[in-house]
Every structure is written in structure tokens, then in C-alpha cells.
């Protein structure tokens, strides 16, 4: 005889910082719920980051609900172990009703309007479903990778830990967004010969006119700008993050300087055929575009300083320290010395388990600050869900509070003095 599925008012799918933030606010309001996490709470930070990983934004921006960073270095950048410790403390503080090691395999609405939630453990039902699994589930590796020689070791950025895990020889890093640029730097600093296929990622300064650029932008109100007010509107969600680093106290990442020091730069990797890697002739354009963004941000800071009459040390805008020579659009793989490739071209979401009419033609959820047009379905933790910080440790808590307020209204639950233990 089939057992009756357990019913919970709210099912939260995903136990990272987004799902935990939702749980925090649900507990504050006394709303029964369960969090389903196929691994362990907040596991991604510990299992999918390289050894020298650190935050690229200052610690003071870490502001999970009820758990603002209060350490000794607010202007510093937490390293991997420190981030893990910070998140473990958040998990303990929230003490969520979580089912770890339980994967959600299917969510669909029944005829009575209630959602059926099938999991690897057992079946449940729920009136509200919050999708907190994020947008970075499936690593992107191009089909050309299947045609590369088996002698070349290939890993994705989420598998990279340190230079020693790769075989002796030269390394090709594909993609120069935040992960690609930092991994290329990690290998470069370790003395490895690096080839870097550059894309169209922008960059920004770490420090400018006496302060961290993030601090300037915060004062300028950039991090409060909503997606509805952004010049690109929804298009900003497709933007690649600026590359910069918090390593060793924070510094710029300048690919041109890497080139001066021996790193080989190429344009976008397009194909592999006849034993050669083929690159687009766009390296100059990509480097110039990144520098244009870099100087544009600094110019906006200059304008803000002038308008507010702020005293700040003068600083020149960036001037290129290296220019590409004759374009290199192919590389004989066998003769290059490259023995390993690190793919740093991102991830794609995986919402195949959710049967709901909430996706656009590209498979991305349609929503307004996480609230979809289908009653009872919500998303959280996605890039620019509402503001720049929506997918980060800074503003995900505010998005969670907004979603939970909507849920509370739908459930008709009156808030009472149930507080998360602190």
C-alpha cells in the first residue's frame, strides 16, 4: 500500500545561502517548511572552489539575515576556509528543518492545486515551492572537448583545486571571467606556463582614489539599483561578472601584465580541427573593451567625487602596458606543450525537475523579484533577481524576506514571536 505523502506548507529546494535565508524568514514567521538539499547545507563553497579562493568583494558586504559579518577585517576578503566557517555559523544559527542528501526529482501541480514533490527519499506535497537551487548547476563544456586527444587532461573550473593537480606541462585556461582570470593567475603565480583564451568579460579596479571600488560604488547607490531601473533591464542578467581579485589583500587582474610576464593570450576559442585549436581574431577588441569598462567605472567615481566635493587622492586612468602583436588564431595542440585544459566558461541552470509554466524560450525563469506568474512558485539566489547582490551574500536575505512576505500573505499565517536562536 502506498503511503500518503507528507504535506508541508512550503518546500524550499536548495540548501545554499539562498534557501537558508528563506528558511530564516519562514522560521521568524512561524511558517512550517522543509528545505531539501541533495548534498549538505552550503556545501558548494567547500567543494567547488579552488584552494586559494577568496571573496572578490569586501567582507562587510556579507550580510546574511541575522548574520552580518562581524570579524576583525571588514575591508578584507575572506579566504575559502573563512567563508566556509562563516556559512557553517549561519547554518547553526538558522537551524533549518533540512533534509540533507535528499534530491528533488520532480515538482508538479496536482489537479487540486497542491504541488507534488517527489524526492529520492519519499514523496511530499506542498502549497508553496521556493526554488533556491541557483543558476549554476551544470558546468558548461563545449562539444569540441569530445574531439580533443585523450592525452590532454580536461577539467572544469568547479573541479580545479591547485596547480599540483594538473600534469606537468603547459595549461590552457579557456575563459577570462572571474573564475578563469583568477585560476590563470593562480597557475601563473605557481610558475606554470599558461595559455589563456580571452572572452568579452569586463574588468574593474580593486582600489581607486584611496578606497576599494566596491565601497565607492556602494556610496554611489549602485548596489541598490534594481533590475527594473538598470539601463539594460533584464539584459543585465546575462552580463559576465567583472574580473578582479581579493587575493593577498586585493589587487587588479591585468591580463596585459600577465602577457608581459610570459602568459600567452588568445581571442575566443571557437573550434578544434585538424589537430589545432582555432581562436577568433578578437583579442585586441576584448582587451580594449575590458579596459574601457575599467576606466569608465573610474570616471564615474571621479564624477561622484567632484559632485560631492569629496577629498580623495588623484589617480591617473589606466594606460595599457602591453599590446597584442600579429593575431594568433591557431595553436597546434600536439606541438604546443599544452597537457591540460581548464574550462572556465560558466554554468547553466537545471530546472528540468520543475513542471511549471514559468520559463522563457531560453529556459530561464520569468519572475518579478522572484515571484512568478504561477501562484506558489518562487525563485531566489539568481543573478540580478532584483539587485546586483541578489545572487550573493549581500542582498539575498532581502530577497528572501520579500518572497516570504508574499508566501505569508498567501498562506494567511499571522506572524508571531518565533525568533531564530542567536
Structure description:
With 422 residues, the protein is an alpha/beta fold. The protein has 2 domains: 6-137 and 349-411, FAD/NAD(P)-binding domain, CATH 3.50.50.60; 139-343, FAD/NAD(P)-binding domain (3-Layer(bba) Sandwich), CATH 3.50.50. The protein is 24% helix and 21% strand. The chain contains 9 helices and 22 strands. It has helices at 17-28, 44-47, 80-94, 178-189, 213-219, 255-260, 283-308, 333-336, 396-411, and strands at residues 6-13, 33-37, 63-64, 67-68, 98-100, 104-109, 115-119, 123-131, 138-139, 153-156, 170-174, 194-197, 207-208, 211-212, 264-266, 269-273, 276-279, 330-332, 338-343, 347-348, 354-355, 377-379. Strands 1, 2, 5, 6, 7, 8, 21 and 22 form an 8-stranded mixed sheet that branches. A 5-stranded parallel sheet has the order 10-19-11-12-15. A hairpin with a 2-residue loop joins strand 16 (269-273) and strand 17 (276-279). Helix 1 packs across helix 9. The longest helix has 26 residues, at 283-308. It is globular. It starts with 5 loop residues before the first strand and ends in an 11-residue tail after the last helix. Mean pLDDT is 93; it is low at 415-422. Keywords: Oxidoreductase. It comes from Methylobacterium iners. This is tRNA 5-methylaminomethyl-2-thiouridine biosynthesis bifunctional protein MnmC. It holds the Pfam family Pyr_redox_3.
Amino acid at each position: 500500500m502506498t503511503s500518503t505523502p507528507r504535506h508541508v506548507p512550503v518546500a524550499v529546494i536548495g540548501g545554499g545561502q539562498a534557501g537558508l535565508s528563506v528558511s530564516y524568514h519562514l522560521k521568524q514567521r512561524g511558517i512550517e517548511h522543509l528545505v531539501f538539499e541533495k548534498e549538505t547545507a552550503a556545501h558548494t563553497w567547500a567543494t567547488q572552489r579552488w584552494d586559494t579562493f577568496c571573496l572578490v568583494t569586501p567582507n562587510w558586504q556579507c550580510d546574511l539575515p541575522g548574520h552580518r559579518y562581524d570579524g576583525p577585517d571588514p575591508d578584507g576578503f575572506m579566504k575559502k576556509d573563512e567563508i566556509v566557517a562563516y556559512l557553517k555559523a549561519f547554518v547553526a544559527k538558522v537551524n533549518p528543518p533540512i533534509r540533507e542528501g535528499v534530491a528533488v526529482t520532480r515538482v508538479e501541480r496536482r489537479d487540486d492545486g497542491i504541488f507534488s514533490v517527489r524526492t529520492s527519499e519519499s514523496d511530499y506535497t506542498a502549497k508553496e515551492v521556493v526554488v533556491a537551487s541557483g543558476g549554476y548547476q551544470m558546468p558548461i563544456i563545449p562539444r569540441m572537448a569530445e574531439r580533443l586527444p585523450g592525452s590532454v587532461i580536461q577539467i572544469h573550473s568547479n573541479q580545479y583545486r591547485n596547480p599540483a593537480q594538473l600534469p606537468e606541462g603547459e595549461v590552457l585556461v579557456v575563459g577570462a571571467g572571474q573564475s578563469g582570470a583568477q585560476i590563470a593567475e593562480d597557475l601563473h603565480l605557481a610558475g606554470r606556463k599558461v595559455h589563456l583564451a580571452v572572452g568579452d568579460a569586463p574588468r574593474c579596479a580593486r582600489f581607486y582614489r584611496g578606497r576599494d571600488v566596491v565601497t565607492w560604488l556602494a556610496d554611489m547607490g549602485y548596489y541598490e539599483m534594481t533590475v527594473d531601473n538598470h539601463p539594460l533591464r533584464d539584459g543585465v542578467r546575462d552580463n559576465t561578472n567583472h574580473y578582479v581579485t581579493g587575493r593577498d589583500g586585493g589587487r587588479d587582474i591585468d591580463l596585459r601584465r600577465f602577457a608581459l610576464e610570459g602568459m600567452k593570450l588568445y581571442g575566443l576559442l571557437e573550434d578544434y580541427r585538424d589537430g589545432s585549436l582555432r581562436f577568433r581574431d578578437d583579442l585586441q577588441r576584448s582587451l580594449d573593451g575590458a579596459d574601457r569598462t575599467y576606466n569608465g567605472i573610474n570616471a564615474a567615481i571621479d564624477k561622484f567625487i567632484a559632485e560631492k566635493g569629496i577629498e580623495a587622492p588623484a589617480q591617473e586612468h589606466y594606460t595599457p602596458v602591453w599590446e597584442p602583436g600579429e593575431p594568433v588564431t591557431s595553436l597546434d595542440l600536439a606541438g604546443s606543450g599544452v597537457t591540460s585544459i581548464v574550462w572556465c566558461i560558466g554554468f547553466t541552470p537545471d530546472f528540468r525537475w520543475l513542471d511549471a509554466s514559468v520559463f522563457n524560450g531560453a529556459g530561464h525563469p520569468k519572475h518579478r523579484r522572484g515571484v512568478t506568474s504561477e501562484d506558489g512558485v518562487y525563485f531566489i539566489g539568481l543573478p540580478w533577481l532584483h539587485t546586483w547582490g541578489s545572487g550573493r551574500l549581500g542582498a539575498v536575505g532581502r530577497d528572501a524576506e520579500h518572497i516570504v512576505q508574499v508566501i505569508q500573505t498567501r498562506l494567511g499565517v499571522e506572524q508571531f514571536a518565533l525568533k531564530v536562536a542567536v
